[in-house]
Amino acid sequence: MSERAAPERGEGYTVVGVLEDGAGLNQAVREIRNLGVSSDDLTVLLKRADPAEPEPFPDGTRYIVIPDDLRGLEIPIGFAAVFVVSGLLFAFTAPVIGAVTFVFFIALAAVLAAGSFTRVGADPVLTEMEVPSEESGVWNDRFERGKVLLFAATAERRLVRPICEVLRGQSADFYVVDRWLEPRPVSGAMLRRAGAAEGERAGRRGEIGR
What we know:
alpha+beta
């Protein structure tokens, strides 16, 4: 499926919905699509334990899945273990400088360990879109608490209110941004399209900087 070119940054509008996961989300996606928002202009950002599990959205709908697991943490955890062992080694073999070195290495290990068990949320995707930090922080916090983010972009101002009404009908919070926002998969997130065959889904894992 060919991707159409999105408007330049600063053009158009994006309605960002913060919704409960489940049937209400699926209904909102269907109703927004029925308003005339194309499959290329609506993106759902969600977290799943099994990223390969298909979502029941209308065919072609873009959705980005952030894996809800600890994959990719082997390296920082390994470095944390190395720092702990190195600190202990210095403490026993070089008593004069060992105490200071031990504290330094243990501090580094603690920072790495803490970062390792901090789940990656929506923040990398929001940062790539250059969302202002205040909104980004709020949306990421809600996302980490189990909400789903929906981005409906349109070049037509007349569609903004109907989209908001759809989200209001699902008791969702929503924000109107006066520019085009198109989420992209970064930092391990994966782009999917509802109804796409497995072969079409391959190779869409996000990479930092894409």
